[in-house]
């Protein structure tokens, strides 16, 4: 870095772009780009671009990824970065449709090196936009269309022309059928990753063709499809499959899982004598069989949770046929696992690192077997396993000393003894979830705080803890996520202790911590400046003074203020002016917030994407100002706005229908709003949730 003498500092600051000529002559663009790569904070990167043409030019050439939040800047950004851009994320870009998307792609015609494009939730993009994408980007390898509910077979046919496609996400594309899947399978035979979760029109026929045409598939998500055992038989022929997610496949049973045990893919070669040289030596045969056995064991991760017709027998067969499994999720299938399942885990002793058994009855003896058989476990999920006891946790952690994540949500029998065992044995612990473990006390947290110095996330929602527990947790200086919702005894004193040492905190949940006041927020704002997500719902002692402290959190993205009865528009204005990166805001039941607060939000929070203003004291003018001004707004909840006449609802929604993706309204408005408006909202992919509550129309 170039140092500036103290006496010349003021003159240097006032000189426009002092480094423009020097930077470009002293440092090459490659070196400047290398410097930018080491600047992690986006705001710092932006500062570099603004003050130096050299950095600006270097980024134009070397920038590889881009996330766009506003449609009006899209063409200019793509023209600037077309030469080097490889990853483009348009999932948060509102009002994107075929015309705008095609025009933006034309801005970089002939230059595109794009390999990955995310259009998740971009419901306005249809087959015409996808045709333009495929034509403009010959190197395209990955496309994400998840949650584009209007995407169907015609869009799939457009993507089928991208022969180099390796990764495709079509989760919840409700219009996709076997016909569209067949188009993709035939046109994109090199697919390696495919997500078709919640595509309810896909059947065994589509899965069978997919398995025949896309033999390179490594990851497949078929969760919640109405498929049968026949599909699992087809999938078993995928010799390169590593990850299979089949959550909630309720028509699959143990017979289907047997196909995963006897994966007959490449092993069929052994029975095909025409393909094998009969003169091969025994040594060569042994090498061939060894190679095929490795191919047979490629499956590394499987998620069979919520498959209600599966039993312990089926789960056991999966283990027997896939000795290389690293991740196994079998939660919420049936009440109790057989002892044979736990003993079979010994077959995975060298590979298994993640095990999720949510919702099962897991005894202390079963946890002991897990500990003895799975000593390499890094993550275990025991959420809602209500029979888990202190003894069971002791037996588990005595052998699984490498655990980094433990989920004990709703394990109501656990006491401080379990936490002491975890603290004594799991020195590498990073994530601990203890929601609704009502019997643990401050004393149990003492061992966690003292022994688990690497802890990054802890969920203590609905636990009987006081500010003393915060004293112990404050020793965990690496803490990033802390959830304290419904911990009624937490006070300002506890927040002061946390803020003194937990400088890396990014998410803090204080839902219904009713003893918290403005003073506690002052401590958090002073000590935890990196917070991005803050939940203060129903912390009823907080006033505008507390929000003034919160407004100093410049990195804040997500703020929940539901039910703060003493907060007014003055406090909201402070938030709007201070938290310029805010993208989600919940003001439900903030009864004193009126149009003044919305005017401030409309003026300063240009990146706001989601807002809940239900029960606020706003007028039609304030609603129109908010919805008409904020270009990024996509998710709005507008329940019980008693001061807003029907005609103003109509005006506000007409001004914003192109960008809205989710909308919550009283059911009484369904017959009062014009059918044409509702049709327009639906045609743009907006999902309207009608809430059935009393409503008196105001005109």
From TrEMBL:
Any GO BP annotation: SCF-dependent proteasomal ubiquitin-dependent protein catabolic process
One of the record's GO cellular component terms: SCF ubiquitin ligase complex
Domain of life per record: Eukaryota
CDD domains linked to this entry: F-box_AtTIR1-like
Chain ranges of the F-box/LRR-repeat protein 15-like leucin rich repeat domain: 134-262, 299-446, 452-621
UniProt xrefs under Pfam families: DUF7885 (PF25372)
Signal peptide start-end: none
PANTHER family xref list: OS12G0552700 PROTEIN, PARTNER OF PAIRED, ISOFORM B-RELATED
Protein name from the UniProt record: F-box/LRR-repeat protein 15-like leucin rich repeat domain-containing protein
């Amino acid at each position: 870095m170039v140092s500036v003498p103290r006496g010349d500092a003021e003159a240097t600051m006032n000189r426009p772009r002092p480094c423009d000529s020097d930077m470009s002559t002293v440092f090459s663009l490659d070196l400047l780009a290398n410097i930018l790569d080491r600047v992690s904070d986006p705001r710092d990167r932006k500062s570099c671009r603004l003050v130096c043409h050299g950095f600006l030019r270097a980024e134009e050439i070397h920038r590889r990824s881009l996330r766009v939040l506003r449609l009006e800047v899209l063409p200019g950004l793509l023209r600037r970065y077309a030469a080097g851009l490889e990853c483009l994320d348009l999932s948060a870009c509102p009002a994107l449709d075929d015309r705008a998307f095609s025009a933006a792609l034309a801005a970089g015609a002939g230059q595109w090196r794009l390999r990955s494009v995310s259009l998740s939730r971009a419901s306005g993009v249809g087959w015409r936009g996808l045709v333009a994408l495929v034509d403009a980007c010959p190197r395209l390898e990955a496309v994400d269309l998840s949650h584009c509910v209007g995407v169907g077979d015609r869009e799939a046919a457009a993507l089928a022309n991208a022969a180099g496609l390796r990764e495709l996400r079509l989760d919840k594309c409700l219009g996709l059928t076997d016909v569209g899947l067949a188009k993709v399978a035939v046109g994109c035979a090199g697919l390696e990753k495919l997500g078709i979760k919640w595509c309810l029109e896909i059947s065994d026929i589509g899965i069978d063709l997919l398995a025949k045409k896309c033999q390179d598939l490594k990851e497949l998500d078929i969760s919640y499809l109405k498929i049968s055992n026949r599909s699992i038989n087809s999938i078993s022929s995928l010799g390169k499959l590593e990850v299979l997610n089949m959550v909630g496949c309720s028509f699959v049973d143990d017979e289907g899982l047997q196909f995963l045990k006897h994966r007959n893919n490449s092993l069929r070669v052994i029975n095909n004598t025409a393909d094998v040289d009969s003169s091969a030596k025994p040594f060569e045969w042994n090498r061939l069989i060894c190679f095929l056995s490795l191919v047979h064991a490629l499956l590394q991760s499987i998620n069979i949770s919520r498959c209600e017709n599966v039993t312990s027998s089926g789960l056991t067969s999966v283990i027997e046929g896939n000795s290389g499994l690293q991740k196994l999720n079998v939660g919420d299938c049936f009440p109790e696992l057989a002892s044979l399942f736990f003993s079979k885990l010994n077959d995975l002793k060298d590979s298994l690192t993640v095990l999720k058994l949510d919702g099962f009855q897991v005894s202390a003896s079963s946890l002991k077997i897990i500990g003895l058989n799975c000593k390499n476990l890094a993550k275990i999920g025991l959420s809602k396993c209500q029979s888990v006891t202190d003894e069971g946790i002791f037996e588990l952690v005595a052998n699984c000393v490498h655990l980094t994540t433990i989920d004990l949500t709703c394990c109501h029998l656990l006491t401080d003894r379990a936490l002491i065992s975890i603290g004594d044995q799991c020195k590498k612990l990073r994530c601990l979830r203890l929601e609704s473990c009502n019997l643990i006390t401050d004393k149990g947290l003492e061992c966690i705080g003292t022994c688990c110095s690497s802890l990054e996330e802890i969920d203590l929602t609905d636990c009987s803890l006081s500010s003393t527990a915060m004293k112990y947790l404050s020793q965990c200086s690496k803490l990033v996520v802390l959830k304290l919702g419904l911990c009624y005894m937490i006070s300002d004193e506890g927040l002061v202790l946390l803020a003194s040492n937990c400088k890396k905190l990014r998410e803090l949940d204080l839902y219904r911590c009713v003893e918290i006041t403005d003073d506690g927020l002052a401590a958090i704002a002073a000590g935890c400046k990196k917070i991005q997500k803050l939940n203060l719902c129903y912390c009823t002692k907080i006033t505008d003074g507390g929000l003034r402290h919160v407004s100093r959190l410049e990195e804040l993205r997500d703020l929940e203020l539901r039910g703060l009865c003493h907060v007014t528009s003055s406090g909201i204005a402070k938030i709007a002016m201070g938290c310029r990166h805010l993208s989600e805001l919940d003001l439900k039941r903030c009864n004193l917030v009126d149009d003044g607060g919305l005017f401030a939000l409309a003026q300063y929070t240009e990146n706001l994407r989601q807002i809940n203003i239900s029960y606020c004291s706003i007028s039609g003018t304030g609603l129109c100002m908010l919805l008409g001004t904020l270009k990024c707004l996509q998710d709005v909840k507008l329940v019980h706005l008693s001061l807003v006449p029907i005609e103003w609802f109509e005006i506000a929604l007409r001004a914003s229908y192109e960008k809205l993706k989710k909308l919550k309204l009283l059911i009484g408005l369904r017959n009062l709003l014009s059918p044409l408006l509702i049709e327009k909202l639906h045609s743009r992919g907006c999902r309207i949730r009608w809430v059935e509550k009393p409503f008196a129309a105001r005109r």
